[in-house]
Amino acid sequence: MIRSMTGFGRGDQSGERGGYSVEMRSVNNRYLDVQVKTPRNLGALEPRIRKAVQGSFARGRIDVFVNRTGSDAAAVKLTADHHLAEQYLTIVRELQHRFSLPGEVSVATVLGLPDVISREDSSDDPEALWSMLAPALDQAMERLRTMRSDEGAALAGDIAGRLESIASMTSVVRDRAPETVEQARRRMTETVARILKEQPDPQRIAQEIAILAERTDVTEELTRLDSHLTQFRRLLAGTDGDPVGRKLDFLIQEMGREVNTIASKAMDSHIAMTVVTMKAELEKIREQVQNIE
Fold this sequence. Notes:
- The mean pLDDT is 86.
- Helix 4 (126-196) runs antiparallel to helix 5 (202-216), helix 6 (219-236) packs antiparallel against helix 7 and helix 7 runs antiparallel to helix 8.
- It is built from eight helices and six strands; from the N terminus they run βββαββααβααααα.
- A four-stranded mixed β-sheet has the order 1-2-4-3. Strands 5-6 form a two-stranded antiparallel ribbon.
- The longest helix is centred in the middle third of the chain and has 71 residues, at 126-196.
- The radius of gyration is 35 Å and the shape is elongated.
- It starts with 6 loop residues before the first strand and ends with a helix.
- It is α+β, with helices and mostly antiparallel strands and 293 residues long.
């Protein structure tokens, strides 16, 4: 099954003390790159989240966003650092006395001082947090997998149609190739005769034609191109679920190599035009393959 590397998934889990939402966005990437962003109290779970995602996907840049949902008042504990506040007040009074500064220090001023009031999540047990987060993460990953599979099916359909076009053009080139060799043979005979201005040497002509035929023969290239097309179709229709993007990318490069060789050997305008169209189709397939896992 072909899977795209583009997709989105969201999962939610809620309880009496609120819950968590997980959003996952993925785009194409040469390798698997997982980036996780969580609330501060879930920082210890980031490696666990990353490992779960890495176990479900093989390629792509995947961004995971975890947010707390609902009211979390019951899970939050506010504490005051009395000793720190006392130090702040002592220093403020010393400054007022030394520089004769007017004004009074209010409660609001003290509360706004750094680290006097700290916010802690009373649910700091990693296992308890994971039990709330894991269902939302699983749901997001499942929805992301579904979307990537749906996108992959659309890509596979488009690529399959283009492969058929290339296969048809390959047949056109194969049918046309013998005629181009015969045309080259006639041109060679005429050229050699004109150069010698006499009866051409049959042995020399035969040698030149053999060399020309080898240079213009595209049989091997067409055979390899057919083989690549067959392998490409097999991978495209695979059902084992293994990532095939890199293999498809390699086959596209090899097909491009064969088509370029055919273009360099072509001594026929009709074949040349057909090869140009083949190259255009291969480029479109190559762009699609870049987004396959």
